[in-house]
Amino acid sequence: MILRKFVAYLYYVGCVILGIGIVGKMLIHFPLYCERRMKKLLFTIALASIGASVSAQNINGTWSGELNAGFQKIKVVLNLSDDGKCTLDSPDQGAYGIAATTNFVSADSINVSIASLNASYSARLQNGELKGTFTQNGFKLPLSLKPSEKAELRRPQNPQPPYPYETEEVTFQNTKAGATLAGTLTIPAGGSKYVLLMVTGSGAQNRDEEVFGHKPFAVIADRLARAGIATLRYDDRATGKSVGGMDPNVTTLDFAADAEAGIQWLRSQKQFKKVGLIGHSEGGTIAFMLAAQKKLNFIVSLAGTSVKGDSVLLAQTKAMAGPQVKDLTIEQLRQMPEMQNPWVKWFIDYDPQNDIAKIKCPVMALNGSKDLQVIASQNLPALRRTLPKNKRNIIKEYEGLNHLFQHCKTGMPTEYATIEETFSEEVINDIIAWIKRL
C-alpha cells in the first residue's frame, strides 16, 4: 500500500508514465492526454490570461523559481505584464500559457485557480519574492518565485532558408476513421527515389513533432531533403490542420491506420520507388507493426519499443524514480486506476515481438544510452533476438543521447527543453548513409 501511494504521488507531481506516451506528460492533463494518445512525456503547469488589474508597482515583471516535485525540480516562470495579464511557463516541460481565473489580486498578493486542472496557486510578496503554495488534487507544494529576466529559447538546428528543395501542402484520408490528415511533402530538387512517412510519438503532435520548443521532424526532413531524400510529415488526427477521427477509445492501432493511409497515398503518387517509414517512440512501434504487414520497403525506428508495454512502463518508472520504487511490480502498476484507459490498456498488453518476428524489409533501429523512457538495454537486445536476419539491418545504441536523441547529462525529461540541440547530427548522418545504401 505504501509503495502504491508513492507511485500515485509520482503520478500527481509529474512522473509516473513517461515516454511512449504514458508517463508523465502532465499530471493535470492526463485524462485528455489519454484520449489524445498521450504525447512524448511530462509534468506541465500553466496559468494564463489573468484578467484582473495588477499593481505595476510591486508585482509586474518576470518571476522564476523551482517546484520541488519529489525526486525532481521543475523550473517555473511567471510573467506579469503592465496591463494585468499573466502567463506561467514551465520551460523544462515546454509548457506555456493555459487559461486561469484570478480569485484575488492586490499589490502584494495573488491567488489563481485553474478549474480544468483542479489546481491553484496562492502567493504573497515577501522580501522581494513571491512566496506561496501550488495545490493540485489535494497535493500542496511550496513555490517561491524571484524576479528574473525572461529567457529566450535557442534552437540553432531549426531549418533556415534558402531551401534547396520543394515543399507541398497535401492531405490524405483515413476513410474508416473519418480523419483527414494534413501534412508537408518535401521533395529534393531533381526528385528522389526514396520517400519516408514520418510518424510522431504518442500524444497530439503537429507535423514537426514540436515539443519543448524543439521541432525534430522539421530538422530531420530538412537534412534528408538536402541529401536527396523525400519525406511526408503530417499533423496527428484532430491536431493542427488535420481534422476528424477523434474518439476517446483510440489506441495505437488507430494511429497505425492513419500511418497506413499515408503510405497508401505516397504509393499512389507513382514518383517514388522505395517507400519507407521513420517513426519516433510510438511511431517507431508503428513502424514495426506496418513492416510486419509488408507495407513498407524499409523502416527507421527511433526509440521504438521491442518488448511488452507493461515491461516498458515498469522499467521507465524505475529508471526515473530510482530506489524509491525498486520493489514495484507489473501487477501493482496494472491495479492503478490510470491503467484502465483504453489507450493505456492496449499499450501495456501489446507485445511488439510478434510483429517484429514477421518483418522482412531492412530495419534501422536506434536508441540512446541515456533514454529513460525506452530503455536501450531492455529493448535493443530483445529486437536483436527476434528480428529476422538481414544483412542490411542496423541496430545501434548511441552513447549519451536521451529519448529525443539529444546529447544530455542525465536523460531526465526535465532536461529536454533546456538543451539547445534538437536532434543529434551524427544520428541524422547515419540515417542518410544507411538509406542511400539500400
From TrEMBL:
Signal listed as a keyword: no
Sequence intervals crossing the membrane: 6-28
Is Transmembrane helix one of the keywords UniProt gives this record?
yes
Q: Name one GO molecular function term.
A: carboxylic ester hydrolase activity
Q: Which Gene3D superfamilies match?
A: alpha/beta hydrolase (3.40.50.1820)
Xaa-Pro dipeptidyl-peptidase-like domain ranges (all copies) = 181-306
Query: Which InterPro entries does the UniProt entry name for this protein?
Result: AB_hydrolase_Est10, AB_hydrolase_fold, Xaa-Pro-like_dom
Keywords, alphabetical: Membrane, Transmembrane, Transmembrane helix
Q: Mind telling me what this protein is named?
A: Xaa-Pro dipeptidyl-peptidase-like domain-containing protein
User: Which organism was this protein described from?
Assistant: Xylanibacter ruminicola
Q: What is the lineage of its organism?
A: Bacteria, Pseudomonadati, Bacteroidota, Bacteroidia, Bacteroidales
